[in-house]
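Quick one, tokens below. Sequence please?
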């Protein structure tokens, strides 16, 4: 018996030793590190959901008192795309909440999307209606004991990193868009509609595989769901209107799916046979709201559905909202000629008249994606909190310099920076970046947000640290997205020099950009348009091109966004060389001596893969790509030059592509540093106004 026990002890020691060796080898093969990237304007959104009462008479509907605007959500993170549940009284018993209201009239109840805690979720909030009286303050300010706030997607669902969008409550289920399942096809959207049981977390996919669905709306009975969908055609790269069609299917399981409208988006039901939707007219170019009436008997298809235009041209009208059985008015978002802002308006269906709503409340703010209460007495929408121009409410005038995002890669911490073109110092303890609000001014800051220092004023883009000469940063001065002959040059800056010594490294200014130094500090690879085409060159790191330069690539295409590997063996870059001028970019690699050229990443036919950056161990790259397609209707969001583009990582041979970000924004310019930053937000004081984003630039008046 004693020998047996000793054998067990020896066996246990062997197992522990093997486990330790495995842990150490695993840890050494995947050292912890950090990725920082930028999202156009996202750090300034600060959306909350607001509501106003609607006053109705037999002949019209209007806002009775514009001072009764109530902020429903709590001022934390970004809250948007709300929905007033049809049967809201049952949710209290469903969620086992002891402080349920005595009647549905005493509370405003809301389901919405929130991005708090570094990930998307869907929340339910209940706020006392008494707060909407004139002079009252928000529930957040009053700290109302009766406020109820519950995440509707549980832990298991929340662990699936994904974007969530446009939720509805149907009995014990929440119906919504999620991007957590890979479409399996490059440049095909991951957006699909799901139904999750609130109590059990059991989730069913309602969208067929191989199809992308957006903007779901559940009919008043809960039987049907309408979506904007690509159908079988897929995404063609549209960045303005997706040219979706509207499909209807059974909410319970996604079956009996049928196309009811060609060319339409953002459906909204009045009854189980009437849908309002928006689209841009092919003839006059105005966005307008249309009505589709489905037949009550017989076959339902695009031939049997009657479609008519509801709102007139001469202004843009989109994202319609309806309430069950209400055929008297709808609520819409508009962009009127002469206005720079998106506003909410009531449209009288009988008299064909608009009645402005939010312009009287906050004329210089954008108001997005309205929704109406089931009884038609309230309109909701989201906008930036804190006054007409967003204010500086959160954190007493603070903004997130680095916002941490949850990802499944535990050895990597991921951050969104309030700027663009970030890069890590060789030790990973400092970050250089361009502040977008300062017209491309270059800053250096410690990884914890301290010791922020302005090192260059004026238009600049791209940053890269020298690996040998401490404190030396390379950047590009001049306009971005410029032609080959535009005056753009590369400079070096010693940011540790009290005098901030500058040196111009390129001559002639023919779009010299995207410098990346070799790990031995001797050379810089960069792109230049000096030949009439954007190709890659290598020059002396200290003296610039006057100290030595050679051409690395040559051809009538654009090679750009280059990055030198940590071991010095490879240069990764983006190029349209397989289809010059098409706008389609892929990622290639080659040796610094010009040999070994091969393609690493292709984002589907016509796709884009840009801004490659090597991992600190040189075994992987991070890049931005439309590999995951587009995740929401672009018009439902603020402006993004490219309403697609997520952050991905892959091995340097192009295998094992993994998606890190899920949203409907434009993510780009990632960098990968050797230090594992603590996965918490980093805030910084600011006196700058928030919410300086613009409406979609392509919404031309």
């Amino acid at each position: 018996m004693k020998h047996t026990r000793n054998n067990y002890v020896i066996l246990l020691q062997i197992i522990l030793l093997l486990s330790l060796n495995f842990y150490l080898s695993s840890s050494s093969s995947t050292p912890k590190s950090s990725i920082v990237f930028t999202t156009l304007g996202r750090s300034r959104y600060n959306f909350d959901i607001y509501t106003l009462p609607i006053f109705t008479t037999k002949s019209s509907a209007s806002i009775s008192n514009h001072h009764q605007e109530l902020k429903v959500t709590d001022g934390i993170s970004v809250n948007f795309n709300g929905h007033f549940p049809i049967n809201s009284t049952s949710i209290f018993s469903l969620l086992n909440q002891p402080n349920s209201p005595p009647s549905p009239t005493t509370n405003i109840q809301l389901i919405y999307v929130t991005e708090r805690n570094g990930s998307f979720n869907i929340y339910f909030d209940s706020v006392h209606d008494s707060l909407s009286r004139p002079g009252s303050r928000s529930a957040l300010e009053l700290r109302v004991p009766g406020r109820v706030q519950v995440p509707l997607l549980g832990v298991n669902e929340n662990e699936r990193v994904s974007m969530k969008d446009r939720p509805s409550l149907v009995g014990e289920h929440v119906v919504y868009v999620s991007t957590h399942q890979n479409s399996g096809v490059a440049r095909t959207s991951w957006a699909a509609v799901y139904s999750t049981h609130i109590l059990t977390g059991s989730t069913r996919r309602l969208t067929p595989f191989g199809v992308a669905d957006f903007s779901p709306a559940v009919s008043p009975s809960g039987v049907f769901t309408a979506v904007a969908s690509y159908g079988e055609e897929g995404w063609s790269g549209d960045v303005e209107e997706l040219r979706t069609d509207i499909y209807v299917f059974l909410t319970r399981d996604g079956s009996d799916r049928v196309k009811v409208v060609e060319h339409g988006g953002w459906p909204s039901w009045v009854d189980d046979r009437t849908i309002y939707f928006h689209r841009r007219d092919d003839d006059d170019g105005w966005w307008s709201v249309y009505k589709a009436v489905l037949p009550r008997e017989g076959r339902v298809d695009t031939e049997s559905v009657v479609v008519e235009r509801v709102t007139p041209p001469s202004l843009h009208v989109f994202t319609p909202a309806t309430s069950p059985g209400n055929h008297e008015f709808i609520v819409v978002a508009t962009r009127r000629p002469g206005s720079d802002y998106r506003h909410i308006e009531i449209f009288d269906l009988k008299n064909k008249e608009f009645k402005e709503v939010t312009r009287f409340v906050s004329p210089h703010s954008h108001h997005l994606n309205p929704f109406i209460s089931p009884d038609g007495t309230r309109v909701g929408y989201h906008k930036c909190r804190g006054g007409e121009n967003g204010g500086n409410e959160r954190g007493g005038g603070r903004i997130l310099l680095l916002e941490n995002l949850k990802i499944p890669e535990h050895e990597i911490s991921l951050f969104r920076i309030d700027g663009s073109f970030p890069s890590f110092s060789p030790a990973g303890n400092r970050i250089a970046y361009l502040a977008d609000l300062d017209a491309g001014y270059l800053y250096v800051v410690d990884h914890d947000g301290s010791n922020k220092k302005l090192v260059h004023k004026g238009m600049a883009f791209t940053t890269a640290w020298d690996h040998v000469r401490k404190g030396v940063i390379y950047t590009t001065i001049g306009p971005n997205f410029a032609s080959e002959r535009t005056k753009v040059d590369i400079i070096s800056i010693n940011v540790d020099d009290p005098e901030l010594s500058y040196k111009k490294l390129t001559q002639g200014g023919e779009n010299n950009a995207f410098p990346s130094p070799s790990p031995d500090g001797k050379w810089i690879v960069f792109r230049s348009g000096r030949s009439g085409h954007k190709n890659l060159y290598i020059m002396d790191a200290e003296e610039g091109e006057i100290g030595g330069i050679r051409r690395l690539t040559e051809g009538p295409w654009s090679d750009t966004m280059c990055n030198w590997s940590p071991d010095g063996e490879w240069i990764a870059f983006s190029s349209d060389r397989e289809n010059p001028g098409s706008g389609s970019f892929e990622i290639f690699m080659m040796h610094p001596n010009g040999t070994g050229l091969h393609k690493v990443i292709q984002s589907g036919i016509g796709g884009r893969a840009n801004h490659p950056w090597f991992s600190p161990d040189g075994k992987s790259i991070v890049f931005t790509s439309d590999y995951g397609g587009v995740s929401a209707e672009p018009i439902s969001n603020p402006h993004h030059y490219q309403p697609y583009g997520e952050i991905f990582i892959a091995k340097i041979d192009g295998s094992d592509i993994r998606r890190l970000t899920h949203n409907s924004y434009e993510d780009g310019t990632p960098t990968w540093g050797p230090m594992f930053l603590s996965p918490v937000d980093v805030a910084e004081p600011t006196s700058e106004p928030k919410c300086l984003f613009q409406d979609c630039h392509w919404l031309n008046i």
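The helical segments are 2-29, 90-94, 139-142, 155-158. Residues 499 and 534 are 34 Å apart (CA to CA).
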